[in-house]
Amino acid sequence: MSPTLCQGKKTATTSGYLFYELDNEALPQVGEYNIILDENEQAVCITQTTKVYQTTFAKVDARHARLEGEGDLSLAYWRKVHQDFFTQELAELGEEFSPEFEVICEEFTVVYVA
Predict the structure, then answer these.
(1) Using the 8-state DSSP alphabet, how is residue 60 labeled?
(2) Spatial CA neighbour of 13 closest among 80, 87, 105, 102
(3) 95 in Cβ contact with 21 (< 8 Å)
(4) Residue 99 CB neighbour total at 10 angstroms
(5) How many CA atoms lie within 13 A of 44 on its CB side?
(6) Above 60 in pLDDT, residue 107?
(7) Model confidence at 4, in pLDDT bands (50, 70, 90)?
(8) What is the predicted pLDDT for the residue at 47?
(9) How far apart are CA 75 and CA 91, in angstroms?
(10) What's the rounded Cα separation, in Å, for the pair 79 and 87?
(11) Distance CA 5, CA 70 (A)
(12) Rounded mean pLDDT of the chain?
């Protein structure tokens, strides 16, 4: 759990669309709530999804990178850490990363802090 999340500094996240498909998991929906747990499985805050959209990795913009609230908030930082992450996750499936990799971008607000 990122400490910036419950402080409201992180208000977005990005996931690989393929992973939703493989897990047969529903995509995030606007209006849904998420209970955020710490490393001890204790609830630390609740978020509510405000926006969800699908795009390619290459089309994620600087605004979304900034909303993720990590590193120096730049698109370059976002691309580096996310490409590294997706490359590793895809390699475990025998797949290769591409800038055309489909991602799900989600924005949210913190509605409760424990």
Answers:
(1) -
(2) 105
(3) no
(4) 10
(5) 14
(6) yes
(7) low
(8) 95
(9) 23
(10) 11
(11) 10
(12) 94
Amino acid residing at 31 = G
> Taking CA 104 as the corner, what is the angle to CA 98 and CA 108, rounded to the nearest 5 degrees?
140
Please tell me the predicted confidence (pLDDT) of residue 104.
98
CA distance 53 to 106: 7
3-state secondary structure of 3: helix
User: How far is it, in rounded angstroms, from Cα 113 to Cα 46?
Assistant: 7
Structure confidence by residue, pLDDT tens digits, 7-53 = 778 999 999 999 999 999 999 999 999 999 988 999 999 999 999 99
- Determine the Cα–Cα distance for residues 79 and 71; give it in Å rounded to an integer: 11
Best CA proximity match to 12, nearest among 83, 65, 76: 65
